[in-house]
Amino acid sequence: MPLSWLVLFILAIGVVGFFLGRMRAFASAGGDSRNLHSLPIYYGSGVMFSAIIPALVFIAVVSIILPSYVGSRVSGMIPAEEIAEGSNINLVMAEVRRVAEGLENAVQGGFITDDMARNARADITDMTARLKEAGQIVTSTVTVNVLKAAQAYRAAAEAGNVFIWIGGIALALIGFGVSFLRTNKDFRARNFVERGILFLLIIAASVAILTTIGIVLSLIFNTVEFFRLYPFQDFFFGLTWSPSFSGRGQLSELGIIPLIWGTLYISLIALLVAVPIGLFAAIYLSEYASPRVRAIAKPALEVLAGIPTIVYGLFALLTIGPMLMQVFGQNGLGWMGGASSVMTAGLVMGIMLIPFVSSLSDDIINAVPQAMRDGSLGLGATRSETIKQVVLPAALPGIVGAIILAASRAIGETMIVVMGAGAAARLSLNPFEAMTTVTAKIVSQLTGDSDFASPEALVAFALGMTLFVITLGLNVLALHIVRKYREQYE
Amino acid sequence: MTDATAMPAETPKHRHASSLLEADARTKARNAAERRFQMYGIAAIAIGLVFLVILLGSIIRNGIPAFTQTYMTVQVELLADKLDKKGNRDPADLKKVSTFGYAPLIDNAIFAKVQSLGIETPFEKPKDMRALVSASAPAQLRDMVLANPDLIGTTIDFKVLNSSRVDGYMKGRVTRDSVARDKNIDAEHFDIVDAMVDQGSLARVFNLAFITGADASESRPEQAGIGVSMIGSFFMMLVVLGLSLPLGVAASIYLEEFAPKNRFTDLIEVNISNLAAVPSIVFGILGLAVFIQFMHLPQSAPLVGGLVLTLMTLPTIIISTRASLKAVPPSIRDAALGIGASKMQSVFHHVLPLAAPGILTGTIIGLAQALGETAPLLLIGMVGYIASNYPGGVAEGFLSPNSSMPAQIYEWSKRADPAYYERAWGGIVILLLFLMTMNIIAILLRRRFERRW
Fold first, then answer.
1. Which of B57, B84, B153, B422 gets the most CB atoms within 10 Å of its CB?
2. Is A388 an interface residue toward B (CB < 8 Å)?
């Protein structure tokens, strides 16, 4: 039976507990709620929470851990020689899971009996024939060992399921029983319930930490795995990026430098577009613009920030690229070979970053105290002189922080470069040539084939790790600068 | 004093040269610099706005054509001896006739129409008419007949979906010159199209199928629609809303109202501000490694997409929720505590309801962000999948493979046929309409409920 039934069942126990707990509290107070320590609702919800929450936490944790636990136990059953050349244990295990699923579906459909599905001496040809008959997809790679592993997998999964059911119901009943017995008029039910709620709030707040841990672990494990297959000095210092699709890593050259170069080049162009425009827009909006102009221009610029990156990607691919081609392409200046280039992606990314730079700088310029401007204007400086010589130097650390944040955005941006920058990894200075970036290669290495064991796929995690470290470093740096700056005026 | 008397002759001489009414060269230069500086600012804003106009303009100009589609109306004779050889209208027998049985009927109908209209054409066989018709038109006719077997033996007015080349010709994307080397259609076919337009049996009509329909294979852009991936996005947003709102609100309440000032709290704060700046693709890697590799959740499922987007939007929602909790004045809390409420009661009974509009606004903006996000979805397998079927039920909606609107747009933009680009732009128009609606709702909510204390 599916887990949703179990959850419903436990919720039902909780609801029953709510009414029984309330009744018991009332009974112990002689039917008068004034004799109770807490409001009646707290007695009911105390019983309900202690029945539901431990059980649900148990179910969630076990059902997350169970598949990989079962998988690791079963994978020991596959002998090493079973793993064909060009394959690996993960692929075989995927096959095992498929067969186990097929067995389950075949039993459900009534094509084979449960005993047959469990029979350890089952005939492999007979079984595959029956499975095929049952409409389950079975490939020719199913061997005796795979079948046996699948049977073991199915049995273990079933045992795990029984474990979840028994454990879940037992925890619900224990929680129900203990807190029901504790319920009487002197029980401090409100304090109990509020402690429980506080615990839940803490759990929710910890999700942020868990996410970071998840990101770091998933990057580290796979990166270490990658460096086991591929020397790290070749990765960090290699000048060529040419993954082979057929080889087992020996033929691939996975040097990150061309990708980093493409990333930085595109980001540089994006910043060259975004920083002057964004900065001057921010200066004008905060120092010159009348309230009416500001009320129109600021939201209009910020519309650019609300547009999803896929739109910018399509804009780069289908509008800006062909436009640049007309000017710089074969019919124009002849500098450009194709519509996707560093320039295309950088220009569009710059447009995307304009509101980012302008609204951050706007906040920072507005935070410069008015007294400084007044002092400068009183000495006879023009407004532009005031801005250039007083306001901007005062705001400079914050503006640098904003530019660093924008750079980190540009480095981590994916869709625009996937669609606008091209796919060829190149070390070149010509901005009209197609280049590629770290993010674009993460996408291309991880989409499609789901074989996560080859260096060609695992390299994406190493790329992700590099990206994560770079952007994290830039963000920490930017926040540090901004925070230091804020202290000056507060 | 001595200084002033020492050189009295020099300064006045200089002063005499200029008057307050007449600007000297230096003042002129400074004023010019001032005007220049101001012009830079205006130019920067103008450039930004021009980019916005170009962007929106090209979206609308390229996207609007996707909302019309070319159909032609012909009289199709549903021959009983072709469609129902046994003559007993048995549904099982009717199903045995594949779309190959229906295609000639349409060809004949068009050919008859062309001859009856007296259009001069070099084509002599009905089969030559097939270039005008979408490959999915016979399937549509077949579905119609299977749904209503009584039609067999009659002649019906059937709206035939035209091929994407004809559609492109009607929209100006395809010209007679551009099809010179096209195997799929000849320039002479467009003579027929022109004549039929004049006669009124071929026209562009509103394309409801684009909004409600499913994705089609590479060769049939005229049939592709965004409906199924819209459903996929919808289920993803349900997951995001159902998880990130309670989690985000609970986390913000803890951090804003209860958290003691200690290492653990600092750690959470640092994590939240860093997660807000982590590139979205990294969340895709997280989803791939944790939800798919480790937990073995199904690939391409809206559930997984929703989980990844939840983790991504959580920082946004936490930041905006905390801001609106902070905006509730402490006097409210003090008053509640003063009449004997517990800390928890003061928060849940008084502070939270007052902060609710702000939380809702932040949540809608977070959802809008999640709706347009593409990069993490690419990694959990939401591309390369042709979303051709509507999910059968709620559970299937969460768990069976589907696409999402931005992933579908990306998928179309990768296909070779330029007719798909038009679909991609059209998809963006729909996506932006959704985002605009969400943002307008958020703004209205803020205007309606915002309270200045």
1. B422
2. yes
